[in-house]
Amino acid sequence: MQLPPKVTQRAFERLAEIGAGDQGQALRVAVEGGGCSGFQYDIRLDQPAEDDLVLEADGEKVVVDSVSLHFLTGATIDFSDELIGARFVIDNPNATSSCGCGTSFSM
Length: 107
Fold this sequence. Notes:
mainly beta, 13% helix
């Protein structure tokens, strides 16, 4: 059985701060081909689709499409706010390597 991705409370809190749920939007986390390591994350606000996996807390949603779900099995979606910037980050146990920017990985 594949474990679905997890979303941290900090990520849901950040979505609430920016009012994503109030606007009927969700954080979409997708995996696409490309980037310097072979795959890259596409993280954006979007409308949920009918076949998306929906992870929800306190009225905020994170969605993953069925194709990307395979690549995100067991991953953790978090929000990081550091001196170098604030962003949503993915801790993906399936990635065998990643680039310095953290948005590109290989399996």
